[in-house]
Design brief:
Radius of gyration: 19 Å
Protein name: DMT family transporter
Helix content: over 70%
Distance between the termini: 14 Å
Number of helices: 14
Subcellular location: Cell membrane
Pfam family, one: EamA
Keywords: Cell membrane, Membrane, Transmembrane, Transmembrane helix
Membrane topology: Multi-pass membrane protein
Strand content: under 5%
Number of strands: 0
Length: 302
């Protein structure tokens, strides 16, 4: 398999790497907006049902063409469907019911480290000192943003049961990233995603039937409809396809580092969409995160 871990970043590749955290930051905002009306399993089912309908017209051909490859790599296909499509989102939605968004963003920032740790343990991927330093610098930037530049905020954080749920979700995403890299590049990512979403929907149905016994879904506002449409199209289809392509081009560790850009985009979106003020600590955190990402992408993974 071709080593892409030290591929040169082009404007096209950089766009692929930055698009997912931008759209996933919007997913946090939209997900919070509908959390009181749509319970976690129902939200996941609606999200991936919409994604399936969006993918179907242009993914059905590669899906049918590559079906033999899905069988050849069935454990990786099943594993990526269960971790990245089913478990990650469901666990995040569930965990956010009992913890803060700040804690969720902090835990989300450990994904690149988990990818690096699991990659080293199971796939002999090694980080250079420069890449490790870049990861740590970008993490400092993340903590600057979520703490509002006040270390006492971090010291006073209280961890809730939902934090453990979200941390398990982060482990799922790290495994998804690594297993995705093991599926060869000749397997079309659009058809592959259709297959992954189909598997997730099949597994979600019994969970949805169980959830309906205790939770009610209410979609009474047009804002909820727009939020669900956003969740089902942009962070689900567009961001997933961009991330899958980026992992193929630059490798799992380098692609995962860009997840640290999520709080930057979250702050910018909050300022634009919610008219929240943009503060100096957010700018400082933004610059620190991009410095760390840049440093991590100069080094090579051997």
């Amino acid at each position: 398999m071709t080593d892409t871990s030290h591929a040169t970043l082009t404007p096209y590749t950089l766009g692929l790497l930055l698009l997912p955290p931008l759209l996933w930051a919007g997913n946090f905002i939209a997900g919070r907006a509908v959390s009181h009306e749509v319970p976690p399993v129902a939200l996941s089912l609606i999200r991936w049902g919409l994604a399936f309908l969006c993918l179907l017209p242009f993914a059905i051909k590669p899906f049918l063409r590559d079906r033999a490859h899905y069988l050849n790599y069935r454990w990786h296909v099943l594993g990526t469907a269960m971790t990245g499509v089913l478990a990650f989102n469901l666990l995040v939605y569930w965990g956010l019911h009992s913890t803060s968004a700040t804690n969720g963003i902090i835990l989300n920032s450990f994904i690149p480290f988990l990818v690096a740790i699991f990659g080293g343990l199971f796939y002999q991927q090694r980080l250079s000192t420069r890449q490790l330093l870049g990861l740590l610098i970008s993490l400092i930037g993340v903590l600057t943003v979520v703490s509002h530049g006040d270390i006492q905020v971090l010291q006073s954080l209280a961890f809730a049961p939902g934090d453990m749920i979200i941390f398990v979700a982060m482990i799922c995403w790290a495994l998804f990233t690594l297993w995705l890299k093991q599926i060869p590049v000749f397997v079309d990512r659009t058809g592959l995603m259709l297959c992954q979403v189909l598997i997730a929907l099949i597994l979600l149905l019994p969970l949805y039937i169980w959830e309906k016994q205790t939770a009610v879904t209410t979609v009474d506002h047009i804002q909820t409809v727009w939020s669900l449409l956003y969740i089902g199209i942009f962070p689900s289809v567009i961001a997933f396809l961009a991330y899958a392509k980026a992992v193929t081009l630059v490798g799992s560790v380098r692609a995962s580092v860009f997840i640290h850009a999520m709080p930057i985009f979250g702050s910018l979106l909050s300022s634009v969409l919610l008219s929240e003020p943009f503060h100096g600590y957010q700018l400082a955190g933004m610059l620190t995160i991009f410095c760390g990402i840049g440093l991590a992408n100069i080094g090579k993974v051997h």
